[in-house]
Design brief:
TIM Barrel, 9 strands, alpha/beta, nine-stranded parallel sheet
Length: about 230
């Protein structure tokens, strides 16, 4: 089986899972975006997924992503998300390739990204990353601090708050985490009408996430296979 055939089969399976989950939740398939997490995989795989119809791709390491995206500028309409933890000193570099940063978890990071976007003369879409269990050492903003961070993002004028994302903690049932995130986004929308995106669910738990209102599932392994070792 060629790599294209392998990816096509994987994509068909993932699409079927998403469609069934949407049907079970009484939702329209168009409400859920499939974000292909292409970290550690070569640009050639992204090109194949693009040919198969995908347009939204995610990376989690700035250095790897910058090099990969530069090879793929010819993919008209491709949109790139930064989903990994981000250091403030990488803000300028990330803004060069990312259309959206999904992992904004502190006021200081928001300020650094806003400064970088302003210098580039662009507006940057962002998601507020939420730590549902409050353990911010793994990334994410604690729920009580969401309002402050959302306000800082909006006041910057250079960032557009599109919603929130989370990774379900291992100490909690995924359904509990996704329900909590949906509640956070519902609260955000009152003061931040652009904050409509609920990014939750990955290869192993996308059905739970869709049943709790996820508008974006981040899928890597189920699409591309087991993760490759990251090259030094």
């Amino acid at each position: 089986m060629s790599r294209r055939e392998e990816l096509a089969a994987n994509l068909a399976e993932v699409e079927e899972r998403i469609a069934k989950a949407c049907e079970a939740a009484g939702r329209d398939r168009s409400e859920v975006m499939l974000l292909a997490v292409t970290k550690t995989w070569p640009a050639s795989d992204v090109e194949l997924l693009y040919e198969l119809g995908l347009r939204n791709f995610a990376e989690n390491r700035d250095q790897e992503a910058g090099a990969k995206v530069s090879q793929l500028r010819h993919l008209d309409g491709a949109r790139w998300h930064m989903v990994g933890r981000l250091q403030r000193n990488k803000s300028k570099s990330v803004v060069e390739w990312a259309d959206q940063v999904d992992s904004v978890d502190s006021v200081r990071l928001a300020e650094a990204l806003a400064k970088a976007a302003h210098a580039k003369g662009t507006k940057l879409d962002v998601l507020l990353q939420v730590s549902i269990d409050g353990d911010t050492s793994r990334g994410g903003c604690a729920i009580p601090d969401v309002g402050e961070l959302a306000g800082a993002i909006t006041r910057s004028g250079d960032l557009i708050l599109r919603g929130a994302m989370t990774v379900a903690p291992l100490t909690m049932k995924p359904s509990q985490a996704f329900e909590a995130l949906a509640s956070v986004v519902t609260g955000l929308r009152d003061d931040h009408p652009t904050a409509t995106e609920v990014s939750a669910g990955m290869s192993g738990d996308l059905e739970d996430a869709i049943s709790h209102g996820s508008t974006c599932v981040r899928v890597g392994t189920a699409l591309l296979g087991s993760r490759r070792l990251t090259l030094p």
